[in-house]
Amino acid sequence: MSALRQEMLKKWLAGLSKFEFDLDTLQAASSDASFRRYFRVSESNAARTLIVMDAPPEKEDVRPFVRVAELLRQGGANAPGVLAQNADEGFLLLQDFGNTTMLQGLHAQPTQTDAFYIRAIQDLVNMQANTPTKGLPAYGADKLLQEMNLFDEWYVGRHYGAELTDQERNWLDSIKGMLIQSALAEPQVFVHRDYHSRNLMLTSAAGDAPQFGVLDFQDAVKGPLSYDLVSILRDAYIEWPEAQTLDWTVRYWEASRKAGLPICEDPGEFYRQFDFMGLQRHLKILGIFARLNHRDGKAQYLNDLPMVLRYVRLVAGRYIAFKPLLLLLDRLENKAVKVGFTF
């Protein structure tokens, strides 16, 4: 944060008459893959800490965050309360959910893994069943395609310095079309778009039933039912055996039916939709992580590429229509693998 921006932030906080802050306690809380940064500040009586979002207006707009937070809270989700806002300068004052992400909780309390995921799945079902979607953009074909094209531009072109052959481009176009068609055929509900272990904050004490607060929802859309489930179960930051993923997916399917969500009646078909949606998402993520490194200088995201690639290969190896994607990956990585197709 520049000295000028820090002074702007402190001046704004000092002018909030409903609060008395100890500005000496202002310290960095976290940052994310965007240009947003977060700070924690204490009230003078030390009764509580609050979070300040710093989103430079030339880079980010805080208004979508405010709108979606209100939609989530209307539906009963545990989104942070927006206590004050200065949209013109790009500052928000938010409820503080603490320091512990779900991911950190999973590492610290491995015996709670199933409880954490069951809670996150139930919260997701409730969010999808109860969050209004009025005013949210549709997760349409153009957006889905634009996201997957990041794979071509940044992962293939920039990360590997490779060019797609005409045949590879035709193959990819066909695969992208299949993935888009599957996504649009799913029931369309509230989609967080980054519902994963780094964006769920563990708000309960160790030993208590897990409770989560949800963050980073400003890009929410109305879109495919399976999208957020893929985000949490095929998370780019933590990996589980396929049998465990399948078990949690079935639990989600059962909870969704109980909640009255329009999920398909055949769990096998839903798992296919889940696979296809995951492939769309992970092609996008490969492009985004490559872009974060090559454009934004955030090299730490390269550490997460191997896990995302394993997800891509898992699904591409399961459906014969995706074999060309495996061939492309093999060319990029200069290796060959034996593939057994099941569908």
From TrEMBL:
Domain annotation Aminoglycoside phosphotransferase: ranges: 26-251
What InterPro entries does UniProt report for this protein, alphabetically? Aminoglycoside_PTrfase, Kinase-like_dom_sf
The organism's place on the tree of life at top rank? Bacteria
One Pfam annotation, family name?
APH
Sorted UniProt keywords? ATP-binding, Nucleotide-binding
Record has GTP-binding as a keyword: no
Gene3D superfamilies in the cross-refs: 3.90.1200.10, Phosphorylase Kinase, domain 1
Q: Which PANTHER family match?
A: N-ACETYLMURAMATE_N-ACETYLGLUCOSAMINE KINASE, TRNA THREONYLCARBAMOYLADENOSINE BIOSYNTHESIS PROTEIN TSAE
**UniProt protein name:** Phosphotransferase
